[in-house]
What does this fold into?
Amino acid sequence: MSYTLRKALQGLLLILGVTFISFLLMVWFGPDQTYTLIGKNATPAQIQEVRQTLGYDRHFLARYADYLVELLTLDLGASTSSGEPVSGMLARTVPVTLALMLPGFVLGNLLGVTLGMAAARRRGQWSDRLISGLSVTGMSISFLIIIIAFQVLLCTPYGLDLFPVRGWQVTDLPSYLRYVAVPSFALIFVTLGYNTRFYRAVFVEESARDHIRTAHAFGASPAVVMWKHVLKNSMVPIITRIMFSIPLVIISGSLLIESYFGIPGVGKITFEAITNGDQPVLKAVVGLTAAAFVLIQLAADLLYRAVDPRVA
Amino acid sequence: MFLGLGLVLAACDDDSERGAGATGGAHGFSVYRHAMDGAPSSLDPAQASNIYANFLAVNLYDTLYRYKYLARPYQLEPNLADGMPQVSADGLIHTIRIKPGVHFVDDAAFPEGKGRAVRAEDFVYSIKRHFDPVARAQGAWLWQGRIVGLDTWKANGANYDEDVPGLRALDERTIQIQLISPFPQLTHTLAQGFAAVVPREAVDHYGAEFAVRPVGSGPYRLSSFDSARAVLIRNEKFRKEPFDLEAEGFDPASQSGLGLERLADRAPPFSDRIEVEFIAEDAARWNALIAGEVDFAKVPVSQFDSVLETRDPPTLKPHLAQRFNLAANLESGFVRTDFNMDDRRVGYHPDPDQDARNRALRCAIVKAFDWDRRNEIFYYGIGRVFPGIIPPVAPEFDPEQDDSPVRRDLDGALALLSAFGWNAGNLPVLEYGYTSSVTERQMFEQFRSFMADIGYPQDKIRSLTFATYGDYARAYLNREVMLATTAWTMDYPDAENTMQLFFGPNASPGSNTANYNNEEFNRLYRASATMQPSPLRTAMFRNMNRLVIDDCATISGISRTLILLWRREVAVLPDRSFVGGFFFRFADAGDVGATGSEAR
Amino acid sequence: MISSSAGYAAREVPAPTRDRGAAERIWVRLRDDRSGMIGLVVVGLFLAVAAAVWLGLAGQGWSAADGGRWEPAGPQHWFGTNVLGQDVFQRAIYSVRTAFEIGLAVALLSTALGAALGALAGWYSHGWVDGTVLWLMGVLDSIPFFLFVAAVAYAMQGQPWAMHLAMIATFWTTTGRLVRAEVMKLKTREFVLAARSIGLPAPLILARHVLPNTVHILLVQSTIAFVAAIKTEVILSFLGLGVQDGVSWGLMLAESTQEVLAGHFNNFLAASVMLFALLMGFNLLADALQDAFDPRQGTP
It folds into this structure.
């Protein structure tokens, strides 16, 4: 019981910390949205009016307190750029981002586990070196280059011209597959190198353990050993990696892809909010990200216990 | 993964209108797919401050006036209004009647969801909104200090139930505007998105959300809107006004071959559905056009080489000419770089000698600027360079004027510098402001290389970068930027719109970014502001232009030539200027069959 | 005496004639790792180029716009020119300096910060110091990175170091966690207990005895941070939040997105190839370092 309490308290402190620092950054260092909302030939009086409606004149702590209340009651307000309610924007964009990033993320990890295992099994042989070499190569190519190159190669008449250049007009399964293909390829390409190397290292570490050598000695086939014993016992680091890379890959990674491919997801609106200084949107995204982070940690803890009873 | 699919299908496009909307009768279902190089942030006409928002506002809503589709130069024509305004003898009272039988679209904001008839009172309300701080409107400057009682109304608390003496609805269909002093451009302002007519019920019902839930009486209504695209569908209740080629200013000599003739006598809007894609990235927009995913796009400058067969006049390469039509339109605006005259290092100085030295420095910089190379590198050489602040698209432009102010004169520049005692040691550090983007940075580096030719040390020309346009605007509106490059889009085809850019009282935070203040200029501006267009007024404008050029207050300017391409099957004459957007209702994509927008 | 430990797979090693110290063993492993050596040489070459640019010996003409537009590779401009007529080769060379400035600053400072805070947290583990540092790490990991950078960039009014600060402030957490874990392990080792029993103050123990034993982590992490810093700079510059004056591969790539579709690949290729080469070199080096310090993990 006290364990749960402690975890909950830690989670709360984390959320408070994230929201406070982010809000600090937004208010003191973020773009002043006043100047995008005034018309041509604005008078100083008009500028002051806009500032007041944006709430810039109030004391920082008062605004922070309001922010916390908004998060608690989930009253997220409306975007100051477009007037659309933030909850509506999130409801519209979060599913799109998930639908966009999940296939690439899942496949990237599945492939990484498979390749990592193949490499770990054949440690030292040419196939291991090949996989490791390709992984390092993949890690050395910038995400940006991948996106540009893939768009030219797959979506334009200069290349294969198989997929749409941009957009997200998804109405059914075939159109979904067409729009998600290139972003997923790009995502897999970029993360596969890192994933493979990580999983390979985990499996190598696990394979060196005594109980694996014992299993070999007892005559279990290498494949069975790998899958049944090594994989099962590596679940803790695997889960850790997957869970903790979710925020990074899905939230930050989606930003570039959505901007470049014109997909109306949460990464794009977050980036636009950052550059416009649209505080309601940013406050909501940051607060919910922090909450998600905490929930992910909790979920990871639970999964650990389910998978490995030794974890207290 | 199935979770993802489920979410996707729940978030997908609302295509339910397509089946029900095939009312083109014999014409099948037609979809026009437009690509814009930016996105509107709001669909509220009160916030239609950029061209993208203006485009959508004039199609979702009605303005009293619009510009004729095909007439060039542009001519005003009644839209929601019944005829041109009746103006009293002193030019102060404008009476406008609106057409009968115009309705707002059906919407939950109205009782029983049925859209009611548009009344004169709605127009009055729409203009009042610009003076209500809660609306965060951006068009007040057009009518500020011009309409009797409007400013007082705002000062009294912006109560909509209170009347404004100079802005009244005489009856259900008659509007009367009373001006404080003559305002020749009033009718032009009534053709802008800012002046679109909105119903009070919708604003009250939706509050801030009204910006994404438009309720208008225009030729289209909104199906969906997000940061990537907007989808408009035909408004069945829109008034039927058969397309009259001649009345719209059709010129058979230059405009045949576009397929417009077959549209005669049909009632716009011609397309059942319009999909507007917001594609800011040049590469993606170009790809989308070539791949056939959109029908229209503005060609990015980097593609001009591969697209144009000849430059003057611009024609398409044969393989593209088979697929596309081309329009080479001079933009309705211009780009210039202002000196901040309030900055004593380069601008006005209380000491007359230093003031003269500063002026010589500015003029040397202007002379050293290589407009031809700027034009060649960034605008493919087809931009139109002109001296001063009256752009070629304005009626008052003088094609015969002496263009030596924009021809590079290194000798003259060097002579000025040495005559006034400037040398590499005492030249001031120039701070060149721009928003952080590839093209802007390249322009800065090019500017630096121009100045190197008159001996300006490289490290004395510094960049002042800003992450966003808002930051940049904040800086130059607070007079913090020494050299500010801005693009001005004209609000109406009248050079008064550019003259006010150098009118002293309009200094920052107004649109006089240069903070120019010349008594003679100000005097001429005040005198000409109330004059109707006339040869005398034109002469005064050209005089004022000369003053700005002689004072070297700005490095000006160039009007870009936009290359617009659209698929040949689409019968349309598109336009991206301040009249922008009205052409949507006349765009006919032809019959694409029941499959709608699947053109690949 | 043959040095080996349980689990160390047999491999061909020249039979050592004497017992070398741990550091020498590591160096031998490193030296024998061919791909690692290639990486080292590549990094060394780039470092030499960066030094040359710093000293003003190369890449000085990166900003002069004197060529024609989009000239192909030729004797005067080895990689051709970009749209302004600037020499692409010079710009690519100058970008090496930019890359190293960012990479070194971020790698060194973030590793140092991570070492310091990680050591503190590990030493006073499960106390309030540890709790605070862990909380700080969690918070920094949860803040959207681009928000952070944009905010810092704005706060510093376009100062060139805004991006570096933002990266340092967020990259230290990985090193911090690793150092913390390592220090918690080292705390229980005999030599540390001995030092404490004779009354040495904690900072001294940390500095002279504990931290030197984390050098393997710090070295590897700094190479990883270098790579991450350069990759991040590329994306930030592309978005307009990165390098403001001067030139970097990120800026070149940003320029190239418009040019590539017009068939002008010079900018793209020059920046991509050089970026790839440097990153590859560093990654190989990082791998080799990891293997040298912990041979069980690598390919023998």
In short: Residues 424 and 455 of chain B are 6 Å apart (CA to CA).
